[in-house]
UniProtKB/TrEMBL annotation:
Residues 156-209 are annotated as: Domain III. This is Holliday junction branch migration complex subunit RuvA. Belongs to the RuvA family. The keyword Amino-acid biosynthesis does not apply.
């Protein structure tokens, strides 16, 4: 089993949502299917990078998937364990939300955020939460991070998120904004919906989003 590869970036091919990294390791070229987020974060051609891998055989065809961290790779494997979730949907989820945000959405059954991933409907999102919630509550501890509990109270969370998403912000941008408003501004969890929305928009605007 290949846990990771460390080599030189020899090329990246992108076609739609499919991204292939060619990594040269000791004179051999490996093609790895990677998330779009990682494709944007790769160093320049000729530079060295370490990629954490998952090997899979699908319809007798060997495939090698690459990720930027062990936690991202392991969450990908957890997602594949959900009935009806294939590699394409798992990567779409990882491209929509960063690892801590996606884990938080799953363990808190935040369907509204999860369905922002292309191809993921409400029933699929609910199934992901049902099958992975208890597993991820334990896994996140060994993965080296803890899910943040800050943000609006559960009773208003969905309304705040829905409003911001309707304004055109991405799920990741919304998650970052709510965390900032809670941690850096210190807005109370039970503040008015309008306050959460106004402060979030102000933060997103200040960052050039």
């Amino acid at each position: 089993m290949i846990s990771y590869l460390k080599g030189i970036v020899a090329g990246v091919q992108s076609s739609g949502n499919r991204h292939i990294l060619t990594l040269e390791v000791n004179g051999m070229g490996y093609d790895l299917l990677i998330p779009g987020r990682l494709a944007k974060q790769l160093p320049s051609m000729g530079d060295t990078v370490q990629i954490f891998t998952h090997y899979q055989i699908r319809e007798e065809i060997p495939l090698l998937y690459g990720f930027g961290s062990p936690s991202e790779r392991d969450l990908f494997k957890h997602l594949l364990s959900v009935s009806g979730i294939g590699a394409a949907l798992a990567i779409a989820l990882l491209d929509t939300l960063e690892v801590p945000e996606l884990v938080q959405a799953i363990v808190t059954t935040n369907v509204q955020l999860i369905i922002q991933a292309p191809g993921v409907g409400k029933k699929t999102a609910e199934r992901i939460c049902l099958e992975l919630k208890s597993k991820l509550i334990e896994w996140r501890k060994t993965a080296g991070f803890f899910v943040a509990t800050q943000g609006p109270a559960p009773s208003i969370l969905e309304e705040v998120q829905s409003t911001l998403l309707a304004l055109g912000y991405t799920a990741s941008e919304v998650s970052h904004a709510l965390h900032y408003v809670s941690e850096d501004i210190g807005l109370p969890k039970d503040a008015f919906v309008e306050d959460w929305i106004r402060q979030s928009i102000a933060h997103l605007s200040s960052t050039g989003v």
